[in-house]
Amino acid sequence: MENEALSPEAIDAEAILWNIRKAVEVRTRSEFFSWLQGTFQSVLAHEVLVCGIAQRPAPGLRFDWFGSFPISGERFDRLCRSDGGLLCALVTMWQQGDQAPLLLGSSPEPGSLPETEHVLNEIRELDLSNGLADGFLGLDGLPCSFFAFFKLPAPPGVRTASALRMWLPYLYTAWMRAVCEEVTSAALQVRRIRGVLTGREVEILNWIGKGKTNAHIASILGIGEATVASHLERIFRKLGVRSRAQAVAKGLTLNLQQGTGPGWRYYS
């Protein structure tokens, strides 16, 4: 196609080197987003990117949405659901097509399979026309990553697909670092909070989760009700919450059930 999404400036060596530098600097989700919405637009203009990454041993891919085009949670669930969602259909098409980049124009090419026409119809319904998708297989032969760009300024062609294939390793490694940083930060938060709560406070938090009042907890533990209230006040402060329900929810999120969790130990 003559009018492709890839601009002539995209093949400029300086732009390529600048984007490589920015990709290598990505460490967090916010940095990944800034790169996509900044210098990366010069090599592949788009409004939406959905990143899929495998998190073994869980099946399938975990998808995340980046872009200037707004989307509701309900709409994103429709895109990513495992029973016929658009992203899963695209991954299947990509696998069946020997992992060649998917060129998702506004209308099917002559002789296209019915499945392709169905996918393009759904893309139009979702106002995501002009898409391009590609990914990587893992050592187990299953998809380990998948990147789907939508709302390109023009239908993609072979040149645009070639550019995406060139950038895939940088997209993948940058996104992997961002995901690993997210997981590491969450793990550090868990360890930090676990190190702050005492064994008694964890015990009280567990009884709160079972619906016990301060009076009930005091009777169970053989301590004064005022002591339970004092412990509860410290729990709220340490977890950064304001209510019993919030404390229980935070405890469940951080796996603070008594005697559970990797590397768990009591602090007295």
Write the layout of secondary structure elements.
Layout: H1 13-25, H2 29-37, E1 48-54, E2 61-67, H3 73-80, H4 86-96, E3 102-104, H5 114-125, E4 131-137, E5 143-150, H6 158-196, H7 199-209, H8 214-221, H9 225-239, H10 244-253
Antiparallel strand pairs: 1-2, 1-5, 3-4, 4-5
Helix pairs in contact: 1-6, 2-6, 4-5, 7-9, 7-10, 8-9, 9-10
Broad structural category: alpha+beta
Spans where pLDDT lies below 50 across 5 or more residues: 258-268
Number of strands: 5
* CATH architectural arrangement of the largest domain: 2-Layer Sandwich
Order of helices and strands: HHEEHHEHEEHHHHH
Largest sheet: number of strands, sense, barrel closure: 5 strands, antiparallel
Shape: elongated
